[in-house]
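Page 37, top half.
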Amino acid sequence: MLFYGKTDIGMKRAVNQDYFMIRSYSSEVLAAVVCDGMGGAKGGSVASTMATDSFMNVIEDKQEKYPLFKGMSEEEICDMLVEASVEANRVIYRKSSIEESLAGMGTTLVGCLVLPDTIYTVNIGDSRMYLTEKGNLCQVTHDHSYVQFLVDTGKLTPEQAKQSNNRNIITRAVGTERTVNADVFTTPREEYSGEYLLLCSDGLTNYVEPEEICAVVEKFTDEGEDILRMACEELVRMANERGGSDNITAVMVAV
């Protein structure tokens, strides 16, 4: 299974508060997570790093008990992803409670577990996961953001939401409250005929439209194993060229 990830500080920020991790367990089994931190120059990067490490530690521990996650039911795998997210929330909230300089820190989180029969996705906040399929980009996750709430309740159109000054306000985050709810999505492989998945922070999606992401992937289809690296680098370049006001992270997996 091919994969590649790239994170970039962007054009305006002094610190990169995005963080990601990818773990490949076999040619058919892979876990990945992207976190976009918040909470001051120090707090955001601490939160995203802690969340990523804590999340992946739970996955790693479970994989050691159930190699390649065999023997686990769909419900147990979904519970594992929620458990990993809750553990990330616990360690960040505790850290911010005892260190005044880190008070209020938090992070978004989007993670996936790719198995031979199913792609599992978990998210908190507005970092996203997409799947490419038949030349289209399908968003798997649902943003926990103020503008998404307004769209869901019919008070804004999706086009208006993209231009809103409130589009960076999230309604759910890892570590800012004692408890947190994570959303989990399952995509059966037999129902999905696409080739790639993308995990990304909003530093990318605020500047690059879904159809443009598909165009970038198609642009490099003849590049063999370099397609993912070239696609990620091109997406980051486009976001920076259009302003790059936030950190930018893109992780792609050929599924």
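Page 37, bottom half:
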Amino acid sequence: MEFKFFTGGPLATNAWFLETGSGNLLFDAPEGADRHFAGNRIDWLVLTHGHFDHVMDAAAIHRRHGCRVACHPDTIPMVADGRFFSKLGFPYEFEPVTADCQLTEGGIEPVEGVPMRVLEVPGHCPGSLCFYFASLECVVGGDVLFQEGVGRWDLPGGDGRLLLDGIRGKLFTLPEQTRVLPGHGPETTIAHEKRHNPYVSGD
């Protein structure tokens, strides 16, 4: 099994697709993802967080595939109101979507036969989640940790200290060879970020 990715929307947002053999997972739904993955079956749409650039095509994907939509409880108000961000002054609206599965940090749960550990790492956004696949040695990180960068925390609900503490306390405790599949930009590894990320290395 290997993740495939698509980058789309106004902020070049990554969506990550995993075909497991028993069912397929798509993490995040930037603009263009519905058309890009139209030829693939999607059984689960999992949202790392509720920012507009990650959910623009969520409703279209749900309508096309009839898939389950999963996210943190704090994400639900953001995706249920297509004008959530325009009300805050951002020039973006989207078709709302209803989540039918709520995810919170806990034990390791098999999703379509693949063990997945849910990590709650807020700070960039309330309810921000990362998804660790030990068997694949990778973590889908959303907008938490980037290649030599981290998610911004100056948006509503952001908290820089909470974000950096979460990265150090949760992501940096993963095996160093773990690949980080981020919401923007190229993939990286835990080892690289522990040594070279100016926001969270060396402390």
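Margin note: The chain has one domain: 4-196.
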